[in-house]
Write a structure and sequence with these properties.
The complex is a heterodimer. Chain A has 18 helices and 10 strands. Chain A is α+β, with helices and mostly antiparallel strands. In chain A, a hairpin with a 2-residue loop joins strand 2 and strand 3. Classes of the chains: A alpha+beta, B alpha/beta.
Chain lengths: ~625, ~170
């Protein structure tokens, strides 16, 4: 029954989306089914399909193949629900749900659009929906039934049974797929209206929203990797991580170039290019993750026909959009030249750095695939390549980012600017010396990282003080500006976080018996006991460590090693003591005779990575809400 | 025509990704395909041994299973179905199991196996490159692995198996 409802809803939604797209020419005529209603019905049917699947998971309906393969009666309710998108078919359904939700959102809430333009935009959005629904129905239908009905399911990959990861895909998808609406807005503009400041104003909030959720989604994934995978790191330059970082970089560039278009009515072609590129990279990201072309924790059972299908979807959208741009490029007039010492100059420079980094990461990600295809040799491009290139490219970008908001539009006075930077330089150097002074030894590059973080922090703060006339004019401060400030401060804190976490980390791997002790920086950890634990769908061991700082008891830490019998899969639950400035991290490994192997980390400033990311998210949402809901 | 270089690069990337996908499909198959059976030396469920000598002269299906494995219950009926359609010897490899549970399991569901090897430590599973249970291997009369099935044998897999056996017997 559930399967029938699901299938019928998907088919209805597909027919509606096709109808909506085919009616693209009649944008001025009155139709039986007006665009708003058609979009609402698409949204309604996809939502029905999604909840049907969720219902099947909650009641453990194993007559549906997808539920049988990814669920189990003994699984906690939360993970039954999140199991819906913990597999290929369900996650594609979520993809489409987000896709139609964005269409529904603009049809319902974006009052700034005139009717013909809105209809056009929704038509293109429906085309994307239709193609993805076709993909689901033909290759990845979550409502395939099996008979005889199995007694119990095969359970979800235990690594994915975790709160951090449960909510990572939905957030990431809001970000990824949000870029689709920007894409539809852009395509529609070629047929209605022109690429001027008003267009920039229209797409800006949606870019902001996508960007914010990409930021949140990526950081949730990274947080999960940090405490669940047990390697003590937060970013591994895994191809799937890169697949989410690439649209983020592109959206960041787009965010800033729309600003230039809005204020200076220039950079039109570049902005269109970035809008297309952002969506292209979310498609490419989907391809990399969903086709099974790369092997990682994210890739599930792979069926090559799916990969070919997604590849064709990518090719279709990328080629048609860029050919459209190439054909129409001559008719789009840029109005003004850009002076190098101006806000737009700084933004262009940062845009180029973002795209350079994007290409570097793209090459690093697909190069191993190419090499294996043509030579059969298997290599992996690892952190050394990515760390080096991203540091080299991001360094200058951060330098500029600090004072770019201070520069005036059009043209600014170079020496006047430099004199204002003196105080920021002084403060940043001071902070760097303080860090150097309090014990932190380490490579010189760490000090460069701290300097950059401080430079950005003080630069942003200084600008904030100037703008508000030293906090006297807080009332007429726009939320957009506040959002930018919070986001930029977040980036500064984030940079300090990754610097400390990667360059000052102390790692120890020890084999310990109960009663033994280990020293880490100023801390000591006593291995007090070990006991067996039993959860709803796992068994395992839990160790207890008492954490002392200079003989003063602080906290008991309990790392776990779990084993999920249904999937025959072990997982590591790290224990982390976080005190704002640093983390103490214990991950438990295998037993050796009567002792156990543990991995200990002292990682300074690591919590700042998440604090910074969340600030960036909040900043983005602040600006979005202001742009979306301000009174006219 | 300013963009011709860009277009060529993009096309090149897409074509390469397409080839990469097809290549991936091949590498997903077991590396043991068309190679002789790996080392096997197990105690049999009812006295005797199951070892490499048992893989000569006739076509054999080797099925890794366990009583704790839920999908194996589903698969079990299909093993009987397969034997009904084609008389073929099936060897079971009982993977990391408790012998008492195995006995109860077989009493309840029936025994389609000509011989059962007890892989208590899972070492045979490792030698054969088994990722998960159930998994099955089709072995020809010369002891060469000709086909591998990941997951349960169902109607569709039986059809594939029968056509493979036909091919081998030709």
């Amino acid at each position: 029954m559930t399967a029938i409802i699901g299938n019928i809803s998907l088919i209805f939604a597909a027919i509606l989306s096709l109808y909506q797209f085919l009616n693209i020419r009649n944008i001025n005529k009155i139709r039986v089914l007006n665009p708003d209603r058609a979009i609402f019905l698409q949204f309604f049917f996809i939502l029905t399909a999604f909840f049907s699947l969720m219902f099947a998971y909650v009641v453990s309906d194993f007559s549906i193949l997808n539920v049988y393969q990814n669920s189990h009666t003994a699984k906690p309710l939360l993970y039954k629900i999140t199991g819906v998108w913990g597999n290929h078919e369900g996650s594609m359904l979520l993809w489409v749900l987000v896709l139609v939700s964005f269409g529904f959102l603009i049809s319902k809430f974006d009052k700034r659009l005139d009717l013909p333009y809105k209809t056009l935009t929704l038509s293109f959005q429906s085309l994307i929906t239709f193609i993805f629904l076709l993909f689901i129905l033909l290759t990845s239908n979550p409502f395939v039934v099996i008979s005889p009905v199995p007694i119990n399911g095969q359970d979800l990959n235990p690594l994915l049974q975790d709160p951090g990861l449960a909510f990572h895909p939905p957030n990431l998808y809001i970000g990824y797929v949000g870029l689709s609406i920007v894409f539809s807005f852009t395509i529609a503009r070629f047929y209605k209206g022109s690429f001027d400041a008003s267009w920039a104003k229209l797409i800006k909030p949606w870019v902001l929203l996508s960007w914010s959720f990409l930021t949140l989604g990526i950081s949730l994934g990274s947080w999960w990797a940090y405490y669940e995978l047990g390697w003590g790191g937060f970013w591994f330059w895994d191809p799937v991580e890169n697949a989410s970082l690439m649209p983020w970089l592109c959206a960041t560039a787009l965010l800033h170039s729309t600003l230039v278009l809005e204020k200076r009515n220039t950079l039109k072609k570049w902005t269109i290019f970035l809008a297309f590129l952002s969506f292209s990279f979310s498609l490419i990201g989907t391809f990399l993750v969903r086709s099974g072309i790369i092997t990682s924790v994210h890739s599930f059972a792979s069926d090559p026909t799916r990969g070919v299908f997604i590849l064709m979807i990518c090719a279709f959208f990328i080629f048609s959009s860029f050919i459209l741009l190439a054909k129409k490029a001559a008719s789009i007039k840029e109005e003004k030249l850009i002076s190098p010492i101006s806000k737009e100059g700084a933004i262009v420079f940062n845009n180029l750095l973002m795209i350079a980094l994007l290409l570097t990461i793209f090459i690093g990600t697909i190069y191993p695939i190419f090499l294996e295809t043509f030579t059969g040799e298997q290599i992996s491009v690892g952190p050394p390549y990515f760390n080096l290139t991203s540091t080299l490219i991001m360094g200058p970008a951060i330098l500029i980012m600090s004072f770019a908001p201070m520069i005036k539009w059009k043209k600014d006075d170079f020496f006047g600017l430099m004199s204002r930077l003196k105080i920021i330089l002084f403060l940043s150097l001071l902070v760097t010396f303080i860090f150097f002074y309090i014990n932190f030894q380490g490579p010189i590059i760490a000090l460069v990282g701290i300097f950059l973080a401080a430079w950005l922090f003080f630069g942003t703060l200084f600008n904030f003080f100037e703008r508000t006339n030293y906090l006297k004019k807080l009332k007429n401060l726009s939320k957009t500006y506040l959002g930018m400030t919070v986001a930029h401060l977040g980036v500064a804190i984030f940079i300090a976080g990754i610097t400390g976490s990667t360059l000052w980390k102390i790692e120890k791997i020890k084999t310990l018996k109960v009663g033994e002790k280990v020293f880490l920086n100023n801390y000591s950890l006593n291995f007090d006991k070990i006991k067996k634990i039993r959860g709803k769908n796992y068994i395992g061991h839990e160790a207890e460590f008492n954490l002392y700082k200079k003989n003063k008891f602080i906290k008991t830490l309990k790392p776990q090693k779990r084993f999920y019998p249904v999937q025959e899969f072990p997982t590591t639950e790290a224990a982390i003591y976080s005190r704002g400035l640093s983390d103490i991290y214990i991950a438990m490994s295998e037993p050796v005779n009567d002792s156990w192997i543990f991995r200990f980390h002292y990682s300074p400033l690591t919590p700042w990575i998440w604090i910074g990311s969340i600030m960036a998210f909040i900043g983005g949402v602040l600006s979005f809400s202001h742009r979306m809901f301000k009174k006219k | 025509m300013k963009y011709i270089g860009l277009i060529i690069i993009t096309i090149f990337i897409f074509v390469s990704l397409f080839f990469a996908l097809n290549k991936k499909e091949q590498t997903l198959k077991s590396p043991l395909l068309n190679k002789p059976v790996p080392e096997i030396n197990l105690n049999s469920f009812k006295n005797g041994k199951l070892n490499n000598i048992d893989f000569k002269k006739e076509v054999i299906l080797v099925n890794f299973f366990a009583s704790w494995c839920v999908p194996c219950i589903v698969e079990h009926d299909f093993l009987f179905e397969l034997k009904k359609q084609k008389s073929i010897k099936i060897y079971g490899i009982n993977y990391k199991d408790d012998i008492k549970n195995l006995k109860v399991w077989l009493d309840k569901l029936g025994n389609p196996y000509s011989k059962i090897g007890i892989d208590e430590t899972g070492i045979t599973g490792i030698n054969w490159g088994v990722n998960g249970i159930p998994e099955s291997f089709l072995i020809d009369q010369n002891g060469i692995i000709r086909h591998k099935i990941n997951g349960i044998i169902n109607e569709k897999q039986i059809k594939i198996l029968l056509s493979k056996i036909k091919l081998i017997e030709k």
